[in-house]
Amino acid sequence: MAKNLTPTERRKARIRRGLAANAGGRPRLSVFRSSEQIYAQIIDDSKGVTLAAASSLEKAMREELKTGANVDAAKRIGQAIAERAKAAGVTQVVFDRGGYMYHGRVKALAEGAREGGLDF
Q1: Angle CA 109–84–48, to nearest 5
Q2: CB of 29 within 8 A of CB of 119?
Q3: Which residues contact 2 (CB under 8 A, 6 or more apart)?
């Protein structure tokens, strides 16, 4: 029998299925946002490893940012993940918004990553 999933879990699974079908071997830029923080990871799903990560909880980010729960913090995290991805040799990714609407902090993180040099 199928596992009972919440609507949020179904939406996340549906998005991931589409990403996997269209990824073409590119790693995935995954976003998680909570009410107080924002996190980003670049994941190579074929190997099951995280290539780069950034979050508003890191000490340098906490000193630099007023809070981790605004658009400015998200944009800065996007730029940081792009820098770390380039250092890991990644320039092209697919964007996994994680079931969140492409709006506000999620959109700001994506724009920051694009400004930092990631292509998606």
Answers
A1: 90
A2: no
A3: none
Nearest to 19 by CA among 35, 31, 3, 7: 31
Q: What is the residue range of 25's domain?
A: 7-115
Measured distance between the N- and C-terminal CA atoms of the chain, rounded to whole angstroms: 37
Looking at the structure of the chain, the number of domains it has is 1
2 lies in some domain: no
pTM attached to this predicted model = 0.90
Crossing angle for the helix pair 105-115 and 71-87, to the nearest 10 degrees: 40
pLDDT in tens, 48-101: 999 999 999 999 999 999 999 999 999 999 999 999 999 999 999 999 999 899
The one-letter code for the residue type at 47 is K
